[in-house]
Amino acid sequence: MKILVCVKQVPDTESPLEIDGDRRWVRDDGPIAFRMNRYDEFALEEAVLIREALGDVTVDALSVGPGRFSTTLKKSLEKGAANGIHILYETGGYCPPSLTAALIADYARDRSYDLILCGVMAEDDMQCLVGPLIAARLGLPCAVSVVRETISPDRKTVMVECELEGGINEKIELPVPCLLSIQSGINRPRYPSLSNVLRAKEQKLIMIQADQGVIPQRPEQPVSISYPEKSSTGVVISGTPEQKAEQLLAILHEKSLL
Fold first, then answer.
1. What does pLDDT average to in each consecutive run of 10 residues of the chain (258 residues)?
2. Is 60 helix (H, G, I), strand (E, B) or coil?
3. Could you tell me the sign of the dihedral formed by the alpha carbons of 172, 131, 129, 74, in that order?
4. pTM (two decimals)
C-alpha cells in the first residue's frame, strides 16, 4: 500500500510578520521562522499509524514550494515518512491552491497511490481547497474533515467519519484509491525519534522541477491584505473610590447602559 501525504511550510505566527510592498502577502525575508502546517502534522501522523497497523505500507511526504521547503520535508522524514518529494516552485509571495493542486496531481497521477492525505486547511491562508482540487484533477473520491478512518481488511475500501457543522458527524465508505482531508484532533502527532532524526540527516530528498505546462493560466490571487483595525481603547478612571464610582456612573449613563 502506498500513501502520499501533502505537507506545507507556513510562517510561524509567533514571528514578526510584515505585509510585503504589494500588500498581497506576507514578506518571507527578514527575521521570520517557518514550520510545518499543523494540520498537515495530523495527516502525516495518521499515515504513520496506518503503516504501523498494516505493516507493508510506504509513506511519502510531498511539498510544493521554494528551496526553504526542504526543511519541512526533512521534518516529515523525522516524523516517520519514508521518502520526501520536493516539487521546486521558486516564487515569492502567495501560492494559489489551484497551482499547488495541479502540480501535486501531475506528480501523483501515474504513481499508483492508494491514499492521498492532506491537512484540512493551511494555517496561512485558512483555505480548505488543495485536497478537494487534487481529488477533482485525479478523478478520485474525496472526504473532508475526517476525524476517524478505518481501512477494510482487503484494503479495497476505507470507512471514514467526517465532521459536519453543529457537532454532527457523517460516516462514509469510500473505495480505494481515494483522498482524505484530515481534521485536527484525529490523533496526537509524535515527537521525532532519534533514529529517524539521524536517518533524515543522511537521506536525500527527491527534487523535481515544477512543470510549467500543468500550471493553470490564470490562478487565483489575493487582491490585498491588511493589518486588523485597531479597536477602541479603554478608559482609565483615577481618583478616590467615590470619584471613580461617580465617573463610572456618568460613563454608563452617557452610553445609555443605565
1. 95 81 76 90 96 94 93 95 94 85 95 96 90 96 95 95 90 96 94 94 94 83 82 82 90 80
2. strand
3. positive
4. 0.84
